[in-house]
Write a structure and sequence with these properties.
440 residues, mainly alpha, globular
Length: 440
Amino acid sequence: MTEVALAPVRGRDRIDVLDMMRGFAILCIFYMNLPAMMGPMAAMFGDIRALGWSGADQKAWLFMETFLEGTQRGMLEMLFGAGMMVTFAKAMEPDGPVAVADLYIRRNLWLLAFGLVDLFLLAWMGDILHIYALCALALFPFRKMKVKWLLTIGLLFAAFQFVGGAVEYVSRSQTQATYHVAQEKQAKKQALTKDEAEAVKTWKEKEKKIAEGDPMIQKLTKDEAKARDGGMFDYAGFFISTYMMINAKGALMFGIIEAFGTMLIGIALWKLGFIQGRRTTREYVWALVIAYGFGLTARYVGGLERMTFSPIPKTLWMTQEFARIAVSLGHVALINLLMRFDWGKGLLSPLKAAGQMAFSLYFLEQIIGIWVLYSPIGLHLPGAQGWAYVMWQASVVIVLLLIFANIWMRLFQSGPLEWVWRSLAYNRKQPFRRGKAQPA
C-alpha cells in the first residue's frame, strides 16, 4: 500500500478566488449578526422596526435584506462544499486512503467543538460552525455524486419551501378576499356568513399580532432588557437560553437542511469549474444577470411586502430560499468576473488575507460584537440604535478587521485559530510564522 502524506493546502496550492470569496463572506456576515448582538431581539424575531425605523433605517434595512441577508451564509456553505473537494482531492481516487476520511472526520469533530465554544462560552446564539460540522459528517460520501444529482438534492429544500409557501399564499389570498367582501357587507350592514365572520376574526388577530407583537417576543424583550443591564452571567445566559428556545422551534433542523443542500450545490459548482473561476467570461456574465435578475428582484419585492406590516399574502414565502441561493450565486459570479480584470484583482486582493484567516475573524466578530461593544462588562453601548447605525458600525469593524488580517498574514502562515484547528486535526504542530519550514 502507498502511504499518502496529508497536509493543509498552502501557498500556490490555494485558490485565490476562493480565499477572496471567503473573506468577503466572513466580513460581510457581520452586517447580519450585529443587529442581534446590539438588540433588541424583537427586531430579529418579530418587528424589524424595534431596532429603529427612520427613513435612513428603512433604506439600510431594505438594502441589507435585498443584497446581504442569508447570502453571506450561502456563499460560506457553497465554499464549504467546494473546500472539501480542494482539501481532500486525494479521496477522489478510486482507492482513496482511509487516512483522508480519518482526517476529514477528525477535522470536523474539532470544528464541532469550536462551534460549541462559540455557542456556550462566547454565547453567540447565531453560530454556524456547529451546523456546518454536523452537515460535514454526512457530506463526505457525496463527493463523487454527479452534478445533476447534487443540484437536484441541493435544491430540494428550496422546492419544499416554495410549495409550502405557495399553499400559504393561496390560503392567505382567499382569507384576504373574503375579508374584503365581509368589510363591504359590514359597511352596508348586511349579515356575514360563517366563513366571512371567520375571515374577519383571523385577519383582525393577525393585524393585532403585527401591531402589538407576539406575546413570546414581548417576554423575550423584557428578559433581554434585564439581562443586558445585569451581570456577565445574566447576559451570557440570555443568549444561550435564546439559542435553546429557537432550536426548540426547529431552527437547528432547518439550519442543517439549508446548509447541507447549499453545500451540495457548492460541490456541484466546483465540479462545473464555476466557483473556482474556470468558466468563460460570457458564462459568468449570464450567470450574474440571471441570478441577480431573479434573486434581487424577488428579495426586493419581498422586502417591500414586509415593510407593509400587514397580513397580506407575501411572495417571499415562495421565493425566499431560491432567491437566497440565486443572490449567493450572483456574488460568486461577480467576484469571478472581477478577477478577469487587473483592476478587479486589485480591488479584491485585500480580501485574500481575510479569507485565509476567516475562522479567526469569525470568532473575533463575536468577541467584538457581543463582549466588547454591548456586554455589561464591555462598552455596554445602548441597543436599538437603528439599521443605518448598524451598517455604519459594522463597516468600521469590518475595515479594522480587514487591516488586521492583512498585517497578520504578512507575519504568519495562518490565523491563530486556523493554526490551532489544523494542529489538532493533523495531530501535529503546524508551522506558524512565515519562513519556517513545515515539521516532519
